[in-house]
Amino acid sequence: MKLKPILVILAAVCVVILGAMLPQLVALRQDRQSEGQVQFSSVEGVELEFTRSDISRSEALAILARSRDVVGIPRELANLKIERVEEIALGAVEKFREAGILLGDVEEDEVLDAQPMLYYGLEGQSVIYWAVSLGDPKAEHNFSLTVDDRTGTVCSVEYINGKTEYEPDRMEAVLGGFCRVYLTGLGDEFSGWSVEELTRNAKSPQDKSYLATELSWTDPLYGENRITFFVNRSGFYTYFG
After folding, report:
1. Prediction pTM value
2. What is the Cα–Cα distance from 24 to 228, expressed in whole angstroms?
3. Closest by alpha carbon to 90, among 128, 54, 130, 133?
4. How wide is the angle at C-alpha 142 spanned by C-alphas 138 and 146, nearest 5°?
5. Which has the higher per-residue pLDDT, 18 or 71?
6. 3-state secondary structure at position 36
7. Which of 24, 45, 52, 120 is most exposed, with the fewest beta carbons within 10 Å of its own?
């Protein structure tokens, strides 16, 4: 057998073996070089786009009612400072107390949590709302409020008392007081609705377990929107639809 063909065959075999082992050798070398180091891939910056500042109250409420895309954002990106949000929330609780529609004492209430949330609307519109939770030290009742970051307006309310209940014959007065405080906070844009008319149109089931009324408006972009005011044995709240 001639030597040259044998050498050619051996060289070919070596090339095949080295080709198969090359990825492992390269990976091993890279692992040794990276040992004891933390490596990060580059990430492009994330930007949030906010809507124009002249959005109307009814448009903002429509976004609150219709938005399916909501994301929490850092407090630093909100317009209102946390101290101002707490002041607004506690002030709202005081207004409900002055209206005589609460079941218990709220003098010791405090803000338990406040988080700004970005609500995305249609055609690039978006609104920041603060989700605020308040309560008393004994945890006998709780408030959940939604506060508009642009105006400080309280746009949704939920009040629940786990210890005391309303008597059925008091619900109408509570509903009237609730609607009055809420609509007063919304300002002139919603001044066309009468509290008397809202309470007059209220409906209740046969067991008188709750009383509810609603107001609605039509927006060119978001269509028909509705705010329903509920009062039940344990409290009251708004519902958007």
Report:
1. 0.78
2. 67
3. 133
4. 150
5. 71
6. coil
7. 45
